[in-house]
Structures
1.
Amino acid sequence: MASLPKLLSPLQLGDVQIPNRVLMAPLTRVRATEAHVPTSLMAEYYGQRASAGLIIAEATAVCDGASAFGNEPGIHNGAQVAGWAKVTDAVHAQGGRIFLQLWHGGRACHPQLNGGALGVAPSPIAITGNKAALPTGELEHQAPRELSLAEITGVMHAFRSAAANAKQAGFDGVEVHGANGYLLDAFLRSSANQRTDNYGGAVENRARLLLEVVEACCEVWGGGRVGVRVSPLNSYNSMKDDSPVETYSFLAERLNTYKLAYLHMMRADFFKAQKGDVLTPIRAAYKGNLVGNMGYTGEEAEAAIVEGKLDAVAFGTSFLANPDLPERLSQGAPLHKPDSSKFYTAGPAGYTDYPTMVKA
Ligand code: PHB
């Protein structure tokens, strides 16, 4: 069956040539150490998935004290850089390419994971729509602390030095996590931002921190090795925007100036509460490569690329459960189902033990 010729064709993604348009989406898997250091097991996991056009490695903290899950990786000290170097070596040894997703958990960071410190945010508004997922179980989120202007500048510097650390660790580029209600998204979307200074109110103010972070990453890497991920409709972490089409059209136009590797858009809502078409206006406003994500089948991804709606598609849980996903898609082979009970557990079970196809 399926050969999916466009999906499996090469693409120039900024400065990076990719052999197919089947990207691996960033997936939080909490397999790092308690000190947020990437492990050899993580190197094995990513190495197994090197046939992706591009791997976008999981959300990785840019500074200390910004843990939202426990055991997620960081990229703000030497041990973490050394751990990630094992990962990039494993992917490159298999002929792959890997970006690192740079992240600050913002108001989703729980005091119990951060030495008692509150999460931080544009405004002191707690997440109420879902709980914090700690290794010990779920807890209510607490109201975060509002960042001062000096601290906001500090956030931008943390992203810049994390971008430089990612370079040292051997990544091929970085993706800025501007999605899912974490710090940069909390500034961007109106529901979480009640500031009255230069970082709140009008869309150009709400987008300011994200754009400053993108600019800092571009200074380190050049725009052709920087991507940005957004989630205009996702209500996860109590997020909502009063006018998503206006907000994201503005953002897309401003991002054009950086000539990025790509803009990565989650098309839907984890909770299916917010609906709409933000993809079409973003496609119209954004001049570079647009990557789609969330629940695409191979056939749907192929059609979206053929119709000119997208340039590539990032696959999350299907890549997690099928390390050789591009090959399976090309052969129309059946896909393994992901075992969600092992998404956030420790060790190799449900992580590195998904089989590749048996070669004929
Ligand atoms: C994210 O990093 O965007 C993320 C992580 C874990 C989730 C949802 C979103 O459960």
2.
Amino acid sequence: VEIIRTIEWMKQTARAARMSGHVIGLVPTMGALHDGHFSLIQAAKQRCSPVIATIFVNPAQFGPAEDLAKYPRSFEADCEALEKRGVDYLFAPTAEQIYPKGFSTYVTVEGLSSRLEGKSRPGHFRGVATIVLKLLEITQPHFAFFGRKDAQQERVIRTMAGDLNLDAEILACPIVREASGLALSSRNAYLSADQNKSALKLSRALLATKKEIEAGERNAVQLIRTVRDVLAGDPGLEVDYAEIVDADTFEPVMHLRLACYVLLAAKVGTTRLIDNALVEQVGEEFQVTV
Ligand code: AMP
């Protein structure tokens, strides 16, 4: 893997690859890489060459009371892992380069950015949309890969790409979980053994709704009641939201429809975790992917 530290060199490298007819794949990350990230890299490798991974802990998407300073960082190990997986370029710029003095242009995807994650984390999606637009400009990808773990983020980026007529096609990859069911996240590193047990309840709650949906339940209120029942009574877990939303608009639904998400956010100690299940109608049946 060739490590690229400057915007200029990354741009030149990407431009040269494009000019010679290569299909560029982009996998943006904040580092502390795990199998969730590696699944995106694998998807990118299947379609694209070169594959560009980025590691940038983006200050603009963290609130003032959030974990920017202590966000897990493991650059050396990340480089080794990217090398092993055949990633061609790692773009790892400094914050000073990305947000130089006087930086004042931000992208806001209205509506979508003010609900759910956006409501709990004001300014978060503005930071996300801004950095992703910058990374797309710098790396010029044909395809950019994002995880469904951050379903609303993926929707925000897809909306931005459509609204701004961006060239890159946005592709979403399934959630990767531990054998226990816990969705992989760099933030899992913060969890103690006890907190890990509490965190497991998120995927348990989603599996309970899956079972209920497969048994014929279609009512969102009832399904959310089930979710809350699983999450209730654990003093180590504080639910932020549990909602069933349309997968396109992220507006709440009363009954299951063509495609929706069961979305969960909760705090375990000071660690904020999110998880979701995708519900898709296939003929008369609903298929639930946890
Ligand atoms: P992050 O480094 O947390 O900003 O994540 C970088 C990318 O990896 C985002 O597109 C995430 O949605 C994706 N990602 C993170 N965790 C997972 C996971 N468990 N499964 C699939 N994708 C993931």
